[in-house]
Design goal:
Largest sheet: 3 strands, antiparallel
Strand order of the largest sheet: 1-2-3
Shape: elongated
Structural class: mainly beta
Number of strands: 11
Helix content: under 10%
């Protein structure tokens, strides 16, 4: 069923397909076998902001519109500066991990930020 696929983290053969990712129930690792291999992940695919500028780890970005925080009544206001972003490979399109003052750790989509 899993076409001989093994978890790259723990080498378990008990993996299953979930959407566009494969999931290991033993170590909870998620990965896309069709993505770039060798641990490169996001470095090979360039993440761009709303204006088309390339983003890198550690950059400072500005949120361009008000964003509701899912599961709470908080809102990230447009114009909020976010320092020290981290690029991640989010299956749901959220490819920036960051900490926002007053809100905490969260993920953002690069289409809603611009490089500061």
């Amino acid at each position: 069923m899993n076409d001989g696929l093994k978890c790259p983290e723990c080498s378990s053969e008990n993996v299953y397909h979930d959407g566009s990712l494969w999931v290991c129930p033993e170590c909870a690792h998620e990965w896309n076998p069709e993505a770039a291999t060798g641990g490169a992940g996001v470095e090979n695919s360039e993440v761009r902001d709303a204006n088309g500028n390339a983003l890198n780890d550690g950059d400072t970005v500005t949120v361009i519109k008000d964003l509701k925080v899912k599961g709470s009544s908080l809102v990230v206001k447009g114009g909020t500066k976010v320092k020290g972003i981290r690029l991640v490979d989010g299956a749901d399109g959220h490819n920036i991990a960051c900490k926002i003052d007053g809100i905490g750790a969260m993920n953002l989509k690069s289409e809603f930020v611009k490089k500061a």
